[in-house]
Specification:
alpha/beta, Helicase, Ruva Protein, domain 3, five-stranded parallel sheet
Length: 458
């Protein structure tokens, strides 16, 4: 059953217009025809059309191009239907704001593609509305990344989202899903890092009764996501042995539960979103992640930078959160406290910032003074803002003279990694994410030292 649209055909070839009209009316659409651009203009002033098929050469050559801006202004989706297949004609069509360019003759497949795209345009508008309310940024590069999602939201191809923890990967995953679905019921989020390695296969693929001791009939997440979205978070932590089975399931569109065989295949179809806080390219190079699976899940790649690297976002978000809390219950941030908040790098990214303001908004007396700030923010402010405090002490300079700068730098880096390892509750993945631009190779070298020291002290 097709959704019904009001369609305008602007075509001076009566046979083409008649054939197209019949094809559209068979789909249940209401069709109006004009054989001139002037007649089409009159109709557009009188009523609203959902989409229009426009021939280029009407009462004069290329007259159809002149209709495109008006169609766009009136909210009508413009489709050029032309016998011209030259590159300059097609390029001019898209430059003049046409939504699609069909070279005659039209076919059922071409019409199917266009109407599918028109239906999905609602997804773009819903996505924009969700982002406007829930993902706040003024950073040009981050805005450009969001734009990439907009441009691909109507397809069912995979999305691959990278970035440190707390930057908004799950928010984007949910926004992609909600742009196409009424609720989150079919949004299946799986944190691969949080599932024990011996359980993740049955969690993803399900189990047959008796597959192992105590196993019951259970539907896996890949089947549960049928008709919706499967979001594989921290996909890089998936065991290497399981990656081949996932690749086969994605390629084949079928799932074999644990303990089953080809007779137990279950068909499934979903939008795939994969996300990770550590670059999969490095894992591929190290042989820890299958290259063919990497390219299979890649799709549209979205990278979210750490909050500290987003131009203007820290002051923008702090000011917005202060205003939001103020509207809720009256909230004051003293000038020195605000200055310290602005100087802090927020290594936990937007998630840390939002949680901070949520906790402070619940104070009995919602007046945030400098003394109320956590020690680490005060320490950061005192260390890097006070111009009387040197970045490198005399003792450190003496150490550089006695040994060498590369060795001094390496020791300093180790201490930085140690600090964040403790702050991240000894979680290596979170520590690696918080350190931003440090390479995996360098991070691993420091962690070997830290873990070795820890073993000795036990």
């Amino acid at each position: 059953m097709y959704e019904q649209y009001e369609v305008l055909i602007t075509e001076d070839n009566e046979a083409t217009a008649l054939n197209l009209r019949k094809a559209l009316e068979l789909r249940g659409h209401k069709v109006t025809h004009s054989n001139t651009s002037r007649g089409a203009r009159t109709l557009l002033e009188q009523r609203k059309f959902d989409l229009a098929f426009v021939d280029l050469d009407l009462e004069r050559e290329k007259a159809g191009y002149e209709l495109l801006p008006l169609l766009t202004y009136r909210g009508t989706y413009p489709v050029i239907l032309s016998g011209h297949d030259e590159d300059d004609y097609i390029e001019l069509g898209y430059d003049s704001s046409c939504g699609d360019y069909i070279v005659k003759p039209f076919t059922k497949d071409k019409l199917d593609r266009i109407f599918s795209k028109v239906r999905n345009l609602g997804s773009v508008n819903r996505f924009r509305a969700i982002i406007e309310n829930e993902f706040h940024t003024v950073d040009p590069e981050t805005i450009a990344q969001i734009k990439k999602i907009e441009e691909n939201i109507t397809s069912n191809s995979p999305f691959y989202i990278t970035g440190p923890t707390g930057t908004g990967k799950t928010i984007l995953g949910q926004a992609i899903h909600r742009s196409k679905h009424d609720n989150l019921q079919k949004y299946i989020h799986v944190n691969c890092a949080a599932i024990p390695k011996d359980l993740i296969e049955s969690e993803l693929f399900g189990t047959r009764k008796g597959a192992f001791t105590g196993a019951t009939e259970k539907e896996g997440k890949l089947v549960e996501a049928h008709g919706g979205t499967l979001h594989l978070d921290e996909v890089g932590t998936m065991p290497k042995g399981l990656q081949e089975k996932l690749l086969l399931a994605l390629d084949d569109g079928t799932v074999i539960p644990v303990g089953g065989n080809n007779r137990h295949k279950i068909k499934t179809n979903f939008q795939l979103i994969s996300s990770t806080c550590e670059p999969l390219e490095e894992k591929v190079a190290q042989g820890q992640f299958r290259e063919d699976l990497f390219y299979r899940i890649m799709g549209t790649h979205i990278h979210l930078k750490p909050l500290r690297e987003r131009q203007g976002d820290i002051p923008y978000l702090i000011n917005k959160l202060i205003e939001d809390v103020k509207r809720e219950r009256g909230f004051v941030v003293k000038p020195k406290a605000k200055e310290a908040l602005l100087k802090y790098n927020w290594y936990g990214n937007a998630r840390e910032l939002v949680k901070f303001f949520k906790s402070k908004s619940e104070m009995l007396r919602p007046i945030l003074a400098y003394e109320d700030l956590p020690d680490y923010i005060i320490h950061n402010f005192n260390r890097f803002v006070n111009t009387n405090t040197a970045f490198i002490t005399e003792e450190q300079l003496k150490l550089i003279e006695d040994v060498s700068y590369p060795l001094f730098k390496f020791k300093q880096e180790t201490e930085i990694v140690r600090h964040f390892y403790k702050r991240c509750s000894f979680n290596k993945a979170k520590t690696r994410s918080a350190l931003g631009n440090m390479t995996q190779y360098t991070f691993d070298k420091h962690m070997k030292i830290i873990e070795a020291e820890h073993e000795i002290s036990r």
